[in-house]
Amino acid sequence: MGYNIMSATCPSRIVLRRIGARWTVFIINALEHEPMRFTALADRIQGITPKVLAETLRSLEHDGLVSRTVYDENPPRVEYALTDLGRSLLVPLRAVRRWAEEHVPDVLTARAASTGETQ
Questions:
Q1: pLDDT tens-digit profile of 107-116?
Q2: Where are the beta strands (DSSP E) in the chain?
Q3: Which of 80, 81, 83 is nearest to 65 (CA)?
């Protein structure tokens, strides 16, 4: 069966919604090189609240993009890592990130022009 993102009932919209969620991009990028603990992720991703981080990690785990490993230690240690599926998302996200970083001046210029502001 083929999927068509333009169809209102296509399940691919669920996937696109997950990828397009505000904090997904940041979490996937933060986990690119190594597993991380919750507090390390919160420190790395400036501006995310603990509540939103926990909710987003749960959603990413539910969707198979992130794994959660609990170590039998005292106190318990929990690490989050990209799954193979999550790692496969790095390629398109790198392209989007590169585009965003390269075109900041263009977008800022366009915004300023549309509001009549000068830079």
A1: 999 999 998 7
A2: 36-37, 66-71, 77-82
A3: 83
The per-residue pLDDT for range 9-29, each reduced to its tens digit, is 999 998 888 988 889 999 999
Whole-Å CA distances, 73 to 39, 57, 68, 80: 17, 21, 15, 16
- pLDDT tens, residue by residue, 84-96: 999 999 999 999 9
Contact 36, 79 (CB under 8 A): yes
CA 93, CA 24: separation in Å to the nearest integer?
Answer: 10
pLDDT 10s digits, 29-77 = 999 999 999 999 999 999 999 999 999 999 999 999 999 999 999 888 9
Contacts with 35 (C-beta within 8 Å, 6 or more apart), sequence order: 69, 79, 80, 81
Distances (CA, A) of 15 to 6, 42, 71, 90, 118: 13, 24, 30, 15, 39
Interstrand relation of 36-37 and 77-82 (parallel, antiparallel or unpaired): antiparallel
